[in-house]
Amino acid sequence: MVQVRVAGVALDASGQHVILLKPIDEIPGEGMLLPIWIGQLESTSILVAVERAPVPRPMAHDLMVSIIESLGAEVSRIEVTRIEEGTFYAEITLSSPLGVRVVDARPSDSVALASRIGAPIWVADAVMEDAGVPDVLTETDAAESLDEFKKFLDEAEPEDFEG
């Protein structure tokens, strides 16, 4: 397993949202990135958490945090465990009064949850080897992505976050 961080959320050439996970010991523009395609809502949720942007009402992943905490549990770690036929699988490890529990989850939900509470995110070595790509993101690309997100937040209305 390799520990990763959220390096960014971007749009691919076809307009699909993709989260980029990067080993924590690698600098931008070097090493590998793990791209995982996710939905627009999950993308927004991850960006809101990473940027610590205020939202008028709790989002679904904020609700997950509240439920976990109200049960006296905490998230120990997130793991992207495997990829099968192009689909990524993840697990959330919870420590609770009932002991350690491992819950199957989508990587997008897992990363959104981890981004809110600071839980470590891990990727199986085999997943990084199979699906990782060389990191060639430039600082200009990163700045443009951040500018796009800030513009989104400036234009967003409270109704955009209602479920």
From TrEMBL:
It comes from the Bacteria. Coiled coil: none annotated. Residues 1-135 form the BFN domain. PROSITE patterns: BFN. Pfam families: BFN_dom (PF02577). Gene3D superfamilies: Bifunctional nuclease domain (3.10.690.10). InterPro entries: BFN_sf, Bi_nuclease_dom. This is Bifunctional nuclease family protein. It comes from Microbacterium deminutum.
